[in-house]
Design goal:
By secondary structure, the protein is mainly alpha-helical. Helix content is about 60%, strand content about 10%. A 3-stranded antiparallel β-sheet has the order 1-3-2. The longest helix is centred in the N-terminal third of the chain and has 22 residues, at about 15-35. The radius of gyration is 19 Å and the shape is globular.
């Protein structure tokens, strides 16, 4: 069984927080992927389903913007999900080049299983944390994400 605090490689010693984030993301994604497999979903498909469960009938572009994944990943996921009978894609009335995505009954039926999966993942993730630590972690994680997303890449700063 892996140690709870893996040894940080010497090349990552200048970025222990970044290495910890990498380890956390990898562990979280692996656990989520295992849970999604039980629902016959691939990682990332649940994010698209959650967006459609909140607002059905979005265009593929709107879904791209809401989940922050690249075009080819979303397109491939939507194709797989359509093949699995979870959704349909049809041309928009206003512009036949624009594809609108709608959930099927089978897709809508995943609302509770996805919600239960996220609840179980949250319980596992926060098992050894107090409510205050959990709140603090969420706040810090979003602050880090905002800093990463809003910061000019280092190679552009020096120019």
């Amino acid at each position: 069984m892996p140690s709870s605090t893996p040894r940080t490689p010497s090349t990552a010693s200048e970025g222990p927080m970044s290495y910890a984030i990498f380890q956390l993301a990898r562990a979280h994604r692996a656990r989520a992927a295992a849970m999604l497999r039980d629902m016959n979903l691939h990682p990332g498909q649940e994010l698209l389903l959650m967006q459609l469960l909140d607002r059905d009938g979005q265009t593929q572009s709107e879904l791209l913007d809401s989940v922050g994944l690249d075009h080819s990943t979303v397109s491939k996921s939507l194709r797989r999900m359509q093949d699995a009978g979870l959704l349909v894609r049809e041309p928009a009335e206003h512009d036949r080049r624009v594809m609108v995505v709608h959930l099927t009954d089978k897709g809508r039926a995943l609302r509770e299983p996805i919600s239960a999966m996220w609840r179980a993942l949250e319980e596992t993730s926060a098992r050894d944390l107090s409510a205050q630590q959990t709140e603090s972690f969420v706040r810090i994680a979003y602050a880090i994400a905002d800093a990463i997303n809003s910061r000019t890449p280092p190679h552009e700063e020096s120019e």
